[in-house]
């Protein structure tokens, strides 16, 4: 089979698309209707293509058109080529199109409320032709089955079939209020956490343990304290109030740290759980303009917030 670049120098796209139409219609007459040309023109284009290639692609009978062996191989390559060209054209058109329509977004509860919700009024003001349907839930959402255009996910991605874009990365770190440190002191090594009031998040992967790392070192401690909960914001508020030490993501603690309401504890150590913040979209070559614009803008805003 000839090199595709050499082929495109000898044959026209009209010949290729006409050949594919005949194959898929199993008839010159039906293919003529598909391409909007006279059957004699369709027949001539296929004959010219065969002459250019020097092979017979189709077997013709009075009732049916079928592929020869080489024709079947050639059809597969040409079909893929035309699909690629069609996708490229659609992508170029979509890129230039004004973003519009309904955008269904799935967001994790706490992260979504703290980082995405404040961005939505600004986004819809800038893009009045986009309507957002935002759903907040701490569960795994099937983006395709549930009809979402994009979902924001935290941690490690497990579904490789989805289109994913990393927005940022995060770490779990130890924090406490300055008032707690004044009253009880700060632990100097992970083992000293056993002597402190710790606030436990039930959804940590290693719970009831905290697994901490520093470089190549790894320590496992069993925290105890006055409060455990399955809601990270509840624990954050307790930590700010001076109730104990919390192991929580930096994206959650960051604003309180900047305000001086929390400080790092054991600053050389961090939780073993870390990962990314991702925008995931249904599989496919094309990402609609409305989705791309949304992901671009929340990515810029979140990264800017991270840098503060």
UniProtKB/TrEMBL annotation:
One Pfam family this sequence matches: HTH_1
SUPFAM superfamilies: Periplasmic binding protein-like II, Winged helix' DNA-binding domain
Keyword list, A-Z: DNA-binding, Transcription, Transcription regulation
CDD domains, alphabetized: PBP2_CrgA_like
Annotated ranges, domain HTH lysR-type: 11-68
Keyword Transmembrane in annotation: no
Xref: PANTHER family: HTH-TYPE TRANSCRIPTIONAL ACTIVATOR TTDR-RELATED, HTH-TYPE TRANSCRIPTIONAL REGULATOR
Annotated family: Belongs to the LysR transcriptional regulatory family.
The protein's name: LysR family transcriptional regulator
Upper classification of the organism: Bacteria, Pseudomonadati, Pseudomonadota, Betaproteobacteria, Burkholderiales
